[in-house]
Design a protein that fits this description.
Length: about 140
């Protein structure tokens, strides 16, 4: 296979499209670089700082003040004391697979009541607004 001489264009290669895709990659890289401290900056905390904050929390817990009886809260009552959950009075719906949901044979038992949720979005080049000529 003959290689083109250096500086000559390769047939079927669109350098403008490839350049726009490369610029897009660089733009995403710069955006990620700017957002990283906000989203992942907590990973930069050193072990000594973490231990120091843990010891401060323990000291604060040890310094808790005993409140007088009028200011203390009563013990928490379990929710089962107030509300009871009984079995359903309606029978289990009859479907071909004996289940309710996405593949239900009866339309009134379907989970998708408002239409399709997963619509096809096209190819990757369309989502990223890349020219199709630049992708091999």
């Amino acid at each position: 296979m003959d290689r083109p001489a250096q500086g000559q264009a390769v047939a079927g290669t669109n350098y403008v499209s490839q350049d726009s895709i490369w610029k897009d990659h660089i733009r995403y890289e710069i955006d990620a670089y700017r957002k990283w401290p906000e989203e992942w900056g907590f990973l930069q905390t050193s072990y000594k700082d973490l231990v120091r904050t843990e010891s401060q929390k323990r000291e604060r817990e040890a310094r808790k003040i005993e409140l007088p009886p009028p200011l203390t809260l009563p013990p928490i009552t379990p929710i089962s004391r107030y509300s009871k959950v009984f079995p359903s009075t309606q029978p289990y719906p009859q479907t071909t697979s004996k289940e309710v949901g996405w593949r239900s044979s009866q339309p009134h038992l379907s989970l998708e009541k408002y239409g399709k949720y997963a619509r096809p979005k096209g190819g990757l080049t369309k989502q990223l607004n890349w020219p199709p000529e630049g992708v091999d």
